[in-house]
Amino acid sequence: MHLQNVTNARECEEANMKTKEHLYSLRLIWSREANDDIYDDAVILESLHPHKSLRELHISGYGDIKFPTWMSPEKISLLPNLASITIESCYQCQQLPAFGELPFLRLLKLYSFYMLEDIGHNSNSSSYFPSLKELVLFDLPLLRDWPRDSVVIERSKMTTEPLDIQQQRSMHRMQSFPCLTKLTIINCPRLTSLPVPPLLEELVTHNITVELQRSLVDVQVVNFSNLPDLKFSGV
Questions:
Q1: Quick check: is 169 in a domain?
Q2: Terminus-to-terminus CA distance in the chain, angstroms?
Q3: Where would I find the H helices in the chain?
Q4: d(CA 173, CA 175)
Q5: Which CATH number characterizes residue 56's domain?
Q6: Is residue 108 part of a domain?
Q7: Which of 120, 129, 208, 219 is the least crowded, having the fewest Cβ atoms under 10 Å away?
Q8: Which pLDDT tens digits describe the chain residue by residue (235 residues)?
Q9: Range of the domain at 199
Q10: Which residues contact 34 (CB under 8 A, 6 or more apart)?
Protein backbone atom coordinates (compact mmCIF):
# COMPACT_ATOMS: atom_id res chain seq x y z
CA MET A 1 0.00 0.00 0.00
CA HIS A 2 1.60 3.27 -1.15
CA LEU A 3 0.62 6.18 1.09
CA GLN A 4 2.27 9.21 -0.46
CA ASN A 5 -1.07 10.47 -1.82
CA VAL A 6 -3.12 9.71 1.30
CA THR A 7 -3.82 12.81 3.38
CA ASN A 8 -6.54 11.77 5.82
CA ALA A 9 -7.48 8.81 7.98
CA ARG A 10 -10.88 8.33 6.39
CA GLU A 11 -9.32 7.03 3.20
CA CYS A 12 -7.46 4.41 5.24
CA GLU A 13 -10.43 3.52 7.43
CA GLU A 14 -12.30 2.50 4.30
CA ALA A 15 -9.73 -0.27 3.87
CA ASN A 16 -11.06 -1.74 7.16
CA MET A 17 -7.80 -3.54 7.88
CA LYS A 18 -8.99 -5.04 11.17
CA THR A 19 -11.41 -7.32 9.34
CA LYS A 20 -8.91 -8.74 6.84
CA GLU A 21 -8.14 -11.99 8.63
CA HIS A 22 -6.48 -13.50 5.56
CA LEU A 23 -4.04 -10.61 5.16
CA TYR A 24 -0.74 -12.10 6.30
CA SER A 25 1.74 -9.61 4.82
CA LEU A 26 1.45 -5.81 4.86
CA ARG A 27 3.74 -3.21 3.28
CA LEU A 28 3.09 0.46 4.09
CA ILE A 29 5.21 2.86 2.07
CA TRP A 30 5.46 6.65 2.16
CA SER A 31 7.36 8.09 -0.82
CA ARG A 32 8.20 11.79 -0.72
CA GLU A 33 10.59 14.26 -2.23
CA ALA A 34 13.01 15.87 0.19
CA ASN A 35 11.11 19.18 0.23
CA ASP A 36 7.60 17.68 0.62
CA ASP A 37 5.52 18.47 3.67
CA ILE A 38 5.06 15.74 6.26
CA TYR A 39 1.40 14.78 6.40
CA ASP A 40 -0.16 13.46 9.56
CA ASP A 41 1.45 10.06 9.27
CA ALA A 42 0.56 9.09 12.84
CA VAL A 43 -3.18 9.54 12.23
CA ILE A 44 -3.00 7.62 8.97
CA LEU A 45 -1.02 4.73 10.45
CA GLU A 46 -3.31 4.65 13.49
CA SER A 47 -6.25 3.95 11.19
CA LEU A 48 -4.44 1.04 9.53
CA HIS A 49 -4.59 -1.31 12.52
CA PRO A 50 -4.22 -4.78 10.95
CA HIS A 51 -5.94 -8.02 11.91
CA LYS A 52 -4.24 -10.20 14.52
CA SER A 53 -3.45 -12.81 11.85
CA LEU A 54 -0.76 -10.54 10.32
CA ARG A 55 2.63 -12.26 10.06
CA GLU A 56 4.84 -9.82 8.13
CA LEU A 57 4.98 -6.03 8.47
CA HIS A 58 7.10 -3.66 6.38
CA ILE A 59 6.99 0.11 6.99
CA SER A 60 9.01 2.54 4.89
CA GLY A 61 9.23 6.33 4.98
CA TYR A 62 7.00 6.89 8.02
CA GLY A 63 7.46 10.53 9.02
CA ASP A 64 6.18 10.93 12.58
CA ILE A 65 8.29 10.82 15.76
CA LYS A 66 6.44 7.87 17.29
CA PHE A 67 4.37 4.91 16.20
CA PRO A 68 0.59 4.39 16.65
CA THR A 69 -1.09 3.08 19.79
CA TRP A 70 -1.64 -0.36 18.27
CA MET A 71 2.14 -0.75 18.54
CA SER A 72 2.23 0.39 22.18
CA PRO A 73 3.35 -1.99 24.98
CA GLU A 74 -0.28 -2.34 26.07
CA LYS A 75 -1.57 -3.35 22.63
CA ILE A 76 1.29 -4.93 20.72
CA SER A 77 0.14 -8.30 22.11
CA LEU A 78 -2.94 -7.96 19.88
CA LEU A 79 -0.64 -8.90 16.99
CA PRO A 80 0.65 -12.19 18.39
CA ASN A 81 1.44 -13.80 15.03
CA LEU A 82 3.92 -11.22 13.77
CA ALA A 83 7.05 -13.10 12.74
CA SER A 84 8.84 -10.58 10.51
CA ILE A 85 9.18 -6.79 10.88
CA THR A 86 11.16 -4.45 8.64
CA ILE A 87 11.10 -0.70 9.26
CA GLU A 88 13.18 1.70 7.20
CA SER A 89 13.72 5.40 6.52
CA CYS A 90 11.88 6.64 9.61
CA TYR A 91 14.10 9.67 9.88
CA GLN A 92 12.16 11.51 12.62
CA CYS A 93 11.20 8.54 14.79
CA GLN A 94 12.44 8.80 18.38
CA GLN A 95 10.69 5.83 19.96
CA LEU A 96 10.63 2.17 18.98
CA PRO A 97 7.52 0.02 19.53
CA ALA A 98 7.59 -2.79 22.11
CA PHE A 99 8.62 -5.45 19.63
CA GLY A 100 10.40 -7.39 22.35
CA GLU A 101 7.00 -8.50 23.66
CA LEU A 102 6.04 -10.34 20.47
CA PRO A 103 6.21 -14.08 21.21
CA PHE A 104 6.84 -15.33 17.66
CA LEU A 105 8.90 -12.52 16.12
CA ARG A 106 11.81 -14.14 14.29
CA LEU A 107 13.16 -11.35 12.09
CA LEU A 108 13.63 -7.66 12.94
CA LYS A 109 15.32 -5.22 10.56
CA LEU A 110 15.75 -1.53 11.39
CA TYR A 111 17.20 0.79 8.74
CA SER A 112 17.88 4.55 8.83
CA PHE A 113 16.47 5.77 12.14
CA TYR A 114 18.31 9.08 12.37
CA MET A 115 16.74 10.34 15.62
CA LEU A 116 16.55 7.13 17.65
CA GLU A 117 18.87 7.33 20.67
CA ASP A 118 17.85 4.42 22.87
CA ILE A 119 15.50 1.49 23.03
CA GLY A 120 13.15 1.15 25.98
CA HIS A 121 13.16 -2.03 28.03
CA ASN A 122 10.22 -1.93 30.43
CA SER A 123 9.18 -5.54 30.13
CA ASN A 124 7.76 -7.73 32.86
CA SER A 125 8.32 -10.86 30.80
CA SER A 126 10.97 -13.45 31.60
CA SER A 127 12.35 -13.22 28.06
CA TYR A 128 13.03 -10.30 25.71
CA PHE A 129 12.58 -11.06 21.99
CA PRO A 130 11.99 -14.72 22.96
CA SER A 131 11.89 -16.13 19.39
CA LEU A 132 14.06 -13.66 17.45
CA LYS A 133 16.48 -15.40 15.08
CA GLU A 134 17.89 -12.45 13.12
CA LEU A 135 18.44 -8.80 14.03
CA VAL A 136 19.69 -6.11 11.65
CA LEU A 137 20.61 -2.61 12.86
CA PHE A 138 21.64 -0.48 9.88
CA ASP A 139 22.36 3.26 9.85
CA LEU A 140 21.23 4.27 13.34
CA PRO A 141 23.73 7.08 13.97
CA LEU A 142 22.39 8.26 17.36
CA LEU A 143 21.59 4.91 18.93
CA ARG A 144 23.65 4.71 22.11
CA ASP A 145 22.30 1.86 24.16
CA TRP A 146 20.32 -1.33 23.89
CA PRO A 147 19.58 -2.48 27.45
CA ARG A 148 21.36 -5.61 28.56
CA ASP A 149 19.86 -8.50 30.49
CA SER A 150 18.19 -7.31 33.67
CA VAL A 151 16.79 -8.76 36.85
CA VAL A 152 13.02 -9.08 37.10
CA ILE A 153 11.19 -9.29 40.43
CA GLU A 154 7.96 -11.23 40.22
CA ARG A 155 5.05 -10.47 42.49
CA SER A 156 4.99 -13.20 45.10
CA LYS A 157 1.95 -14.76 46.69
CA MET A 158 0.91 -13.84 50.21
CA THR A 159 3.53 -15.10 52.65
CA THR A 160 4.89 -14.33 56.09
CA GLU A 161 8.49 -14.30 54.87
CA PRO A 162 10.39 -11.01 55.20
CA LEU A 163 10.30 -8.88 52.06
CA ASP A 164 14.01 -9.31 51.27
CA ILE A 165 13.67 -13.11 51.32
CA GLN A 166 10.57 -12.92 49.13
CA GLN A 167 12.47 -10.86 46.59
CA GLN A 168 15.41 -13.27 46.56
CA ARG A 169 13.05 -16.15 45.85
CA SER A 170 11.20 -14.30 43.10
CA MET A 171 14.13 -12.63 41.32
CA HIS A 172 15.28 -14.07 38.05
CA ARG A 173 17.29 -12.81 35.13
CA MET A 174 15.38 -11.67 32.08
CA GLN A 175 17.31 -13.06 29.15
CA SER A 176 17.55 -11.06 25.94
CA PHE A 177 17.73 -12.68 22.51
CA PRO A 178 17.72 -16.30 23.75
CA CYS A 179 17.30 -17.65 20.18
CA LEU A 180 19.26 -15.09 18.14
CA THR A 181 21.64 -16.71 15.65
CA LYS A 182 22.41 -13.87 13.22
CA LEU A 183 23.30 -10.29 14.16
CA THR A 184 24.20 -7.44 11.79
CA ILE A 185 25.27 -4.01 13.09
CA ILE A 186 26.29 -1.47 10.44
CA ASN A 187 26.77 2.29 10.80
CA CYS A 188 25.87 2.52 14.47
CA PRO A 189 28.83 4.68 15.57
CA ARG A 190 27.53 5.45 19.08
CA LEU A 191 26.17 2.09 20.16
CA THR A 192 28.21 0.90 23.15
CA SER A 193 26.21 -2.01 24.57
CA LEU A 194 24.01 -4.84 23.42
CA PRO A 195 22.57 -7.89 25.21
CA VAL A 196 24.68 -10.99 24.74
CA PRO A 197 22.97 -13.57 22.47
CA PRO A 198 23.82 -17.05 23.81
CA LEU A 199 23.32 -18.92 20.51
CA LEU A 200 24.90 -16.52 18.00
CA GLU A 201 26.28 -18.16 14.84
CA GLU A 202 26.91 -15.20 12.51
CA LEU A 203 27.99 -11.68 13.40
CA VAL A 204 28.63 -8.92 10.85
CA THR A 205 29.66 -5.40 11.89
CA HIS A 206 30.87 -2.21 10.26
CA ASN A 207 31.46 1.25 11.78
CA ILE A 208 30.78 0.40 15.42
CA THR A 209 32.34 1.69 18.63
CA VAL A 210 35.48 0.21 20.10
CA GLU A 211 33.52 -0.54 23.29
CA LEU A 212 30.98 -2.61 21.42
CA GLN A 213 33.62 -4.37 19.37
CA ARG A 214 35.59 -5.33 22.48
CA SER A 215 32.53 -6.63 24.27
CA LEU A 216 31.59 -8.77 21.28
CA VAL A 217 35.13 -10.10 20.93
CA ASP A 218 35.27 -10.93 24.64
CA VAL A 219 31.97 -12.73 24.41
CA GLN A 220 33.15 -14.67 21.40
CA VAL A 221 36.29 -15.78 23.21
CA VAL A 222 34.61 -16.66 26.50
CA ASN A 223 31.19 -17.95 25.52
CA PHE A 224 30.96 -18.41 21.78
CA SER A 225 33.21 -21.29 20.90
CA ASN A 226 30.51 -22.26 18.37
CA LEU A 227 30.70 -18.89 16.57
CA PRO A 228 32.02 -19.78 13.10
CA ASP A 229 31.58 -16.48 11.26
CA LEU A 230 32.89 -13.37 13.03
CA LYS A 231 33.61 -10.28 10.94
CA PHE A 232 34.80 -6.85 12.07
CA SER A 233 35.63 -3.93 9.82
CA GLY A 234 35.65 -0.14 9.77
CA VAL A 235 36.05 0.39 13.53
A1: no
A2: 39
A3: 9-13, 41-46, 163-170, 210-222
A4: 6
A5: 3.80.10.10
A6: yes
A7: 120
A8: 555 555 556 766 767 788 889 999 999 998 866 545 555 788 888 888 899 999 999 999 999 998 999 998 888 888 999 999 999 999 999 988 889 889 999 999 999 999 999 886 555 566 789 999 999 999 999 999 877 554 443 444 445 555 454 444 444 455 788 999 999 999 999 999 888 788 888 888 899 999 888 877 655 533 443 445 555 444 4
A9: 9-149+178-231
A10: none
Q: Are 51 and 23 in contact (CB under 8 A)?
A: yes
Q: Is residue 34 part of a domain?
A: yes
> What is the secondary structure of 72-92 as a DSSP string?
STTTGGG-TT--EEEEE--TT
Q: Is 189 left (phi over 0), alpha (psi -120 to 50) or beta?
A: alpha
Alpha carbon 169 to chain centroid, angstroms: 31
Half-sphere exposure of 209 (CA within 13 A, CB side): 16
Q: Please report whether residue 172 resides in a domain.
A: no
The number of distinct structural domains making up the chain is 1
